């Protein structure tokens, strides 16, 4: 639970960090279309985030970070997500890992302090590498093919990870792997980027979030220290979800796609005010249909804002949350965000789908919200089974 002192520190820093994010967002938005077109990684965005002190937003204050909680961090991610969701996604994974390691009793203190201080001092991002070609999403079960073999001098890691978001800039990988022991254990190993035997294969050529650098990472007998083992357990010990991680992942992902929807809404408003068809002789904004659909967009965005703020606030206040509730928040907000952009497209027709206008890019980006764990079908099945008592 957040102490009153911690709340006070966060409250004092909130306007400053949000203002910093807003100041950077204009430049991020101006560069977003080119990064999307070329699929290039926005290295400059992260240099600016580091210089602004925003990479250490969720690092505990005791280690020099801002010590921000979920509600405030979601606000920052919403600002960045509205400008460039690829940048926001990489940033959110970094934030999630720092929040989790600060709260987790299983994280080795020496390692968590090291990563915290590096994030404060410079450009040092971390993300978890979990998904594999054969395994798919670990959330759906199965043992990873990535293997950590223990030797007298260290672990030797071999495997293939896909969808490794932020791979061009990460300094640290949290690699999901199994041991080669007679009874395999499964969990995370902390691996510095760039070790011999590690290579990034630039496979990311996606419909949306094209600048997220979510490439493949290959590990070929990579040697890491024995104390690089972060949290490795028997497979059955991972069956219960990490509610804290699920909660922050849910609300941060939701904030990003809510930001995309708000960018689409803002462009739509400008379009409706400026577009004057000859047959109408007045701006599209004067049409009742346009006003009604924009009103529906506003309603969805209002619901999303309330869900994100209240859920993140409950997390910060130590309210007991469930993984099922987290999943519902993600499902509702991301689908509302998709509906917002689809409504905007229905009003703008060919203009909205033209690559000369940003709405087409917002649509491709917002659809990615449905891909993140947990996917909609898993959430609905889980809710249905719970309602049936199964």
TrEMBL record:
**In what residue span(s) does the Acyl-CoA oxidase/dehydrogenase middle domain sit?**
132-222
What GO MF terms are annotated?
Answer: flavin adenine dinucleotide binding; oxidoreductase activity, acting on the CH-CH group of donors
Answer yes or no on keyword Oxidoreductase: yes
From which residue to which does the signal peptide run? none
* Residue stretches making up the Acyl-CoA dehydrogenase/oxidase N-terminal domain: 24-94
Question: Which CDD domains does this chain map to?
Answer: ACAD
- Transmembrane annotation, as ranges: none
Boundaries of every Acyl-CoA dehydrogenase C-terminal domain copy = 254-373
- Return the protein name: Acyl-CoA dehydrogenase
Q: Which organism is it from?
A: Bradyrhizobium shewense
């Amino acid at each position: 639970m957040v102490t009153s002192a911690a709340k006070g520190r966060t409250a004092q820093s909130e306007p400053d960090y949000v203002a910093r994010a807003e100041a950077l967002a204009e430049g991020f938005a101006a560069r977003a279309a080119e990064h999307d077109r070329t699929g290039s990684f926005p290295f400059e965005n992260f240099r600016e985030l580091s210089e602004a002190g925003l990479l250490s937003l969720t690092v505990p204050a005791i280690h020099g970070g801002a010590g921000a909680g979920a509600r405030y961090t979601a606000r920052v991610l919403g600002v960045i997500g509205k400008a460039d969701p690829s940048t926001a996604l990489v940033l959110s994974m970094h934030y999630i890992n720092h929040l989790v390691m600060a709260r987790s009793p299983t994280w080795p203190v020496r390692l968590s302090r090291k990563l915290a201080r590096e994030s404060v001092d410079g450009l040092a991002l971390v993300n978890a590498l979990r998904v594999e070609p054969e395994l798919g999403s670990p959330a759906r079960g199965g043992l990873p093919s990535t293997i950590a073999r223990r030797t007298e001098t260290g672990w030797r890691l071999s495997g293939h990870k896909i969808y490794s978001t932020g791979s061009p800039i990460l300094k640290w990988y949290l690699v999901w792997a199994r041991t080669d022991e007679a009874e395999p254990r499964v969990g995370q190993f902390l691996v510095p980027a760039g070790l011999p035997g590690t290579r990034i294969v630039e496979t990311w050529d996606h419909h949306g979030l094209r600048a997220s650098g979510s490439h493949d990472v290959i590990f070929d007998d990579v040697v890491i220290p024995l104390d690089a083992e972060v949290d490795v357990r028997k497979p059955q010990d991972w069956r219960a979800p990490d509610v804290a991680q699920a909660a922050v992942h849910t609300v941060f992902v939701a904030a990003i796609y809510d930001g995309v929807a708000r960018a689409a809404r803002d462009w739509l408003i400008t379009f409706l005010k400026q577009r004057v068809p000859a047959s109408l002789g007045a701006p599209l904004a004067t049409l009742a249909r346009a006003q009604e659909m924009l009103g529906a967009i506003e309603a969805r965005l209002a619901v999303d804002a309330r869900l994100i703020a209240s859920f993140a606030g409950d997390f910060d206040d130590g309210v007991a949350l469930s993984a099922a509730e987290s999943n519902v928040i993600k499902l509702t907000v991301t689908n509302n965000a998709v509906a917002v952009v689809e409504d905007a497209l229905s009003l703008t027709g060919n203009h909205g789908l033209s690559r000369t206008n940003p709405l087409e890019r917002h649509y491709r980006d917002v659809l990615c919200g449905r891909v993140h764990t947990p996917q909609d079908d898993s959430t609905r099945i889980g809710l249905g089974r719970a309602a049936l008592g199964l």
